Structure formats: C-alpha cells, structure tokens
Hints:
By secondary structure, the protein is an alpha+beta fold.
Amino acid sequence: xxxxxxxxxxxxxxxxxxxxxxxxxxxxxxxxxxxxxxxxxxxxxxxxxxxxxxxxxxxxxxxxxxxxxxxxxxxxxxxxxxxxxxxxxxxxxxxxxxxxxxxxxxxxxxxxxxxxxxxxxxxxxxxxxxxxxxxxxxxx
Length: 140
C-alpha cells in the first residue's frame, strides 16, 4: 500500500509546480493512501492526517489521466482542472470520507494544492447532534 501511495503522489507531482510539489511531499509523503468511492461511482484518493485535522483528496488516477488527455487533445482549450470537478465535489467527497471513518466533522478551509488536488482542513471536535426523541402528541 505504501508503494501505491508513493506512486500516486509521484504521479500527482508531475501535474504540479515545484513549490507545491515540495509541500505535498513534505506534508503527505508518509501518509497512507486510502481509496474512497462515492455513491455516484467516482473514486478518490485520500491522504488523511487526523492528528493535523487535514486531508488531501485527489481524483482517481484514471480520471486525472483522462483530464490531462482531454486538455492535451484540445491544446489546452479545455483546462485540466475543468475536467477534474469543482470544489464542492471535493468538499462532498471529503465530508463523506470523514463520515465513513466514524467521525462527524465540518470543513474549515479548502484550496487547490496542485491542479486536481485539494487540501481541506477540518474540525471534528463538535459532537454529532443527538437524534431528537419523538415528541408526545398533544391531546385535544
């Protein structure tokens, strides 16, 4: 699994700039890669750092490669980022991933680290709301 994680990071770095690549390697180089599939069939690669309350989420390698192919085929007329999805998509996937790990969290901040790779800071300190008890019906 560690080799796959390093390969995924290496592939991702090919799409990014030097400063961003250095940040990704220093922050996520030793973080285990987790694959997470959403209900819509989209698969994401997640590098979660619970101790730092942040994660990096990226599309599957197939999706990232496809986006790069489309961008190259159109000579850049369709930017790679346009094919990788907007921020809300990655927010939903990040929250769903966190929920799948048994945590109830909210996202605090999120931004592109490298094209197609989002980093989100999160807060899981707020406990999940307790289910409300059914209210007795009032008699008339």
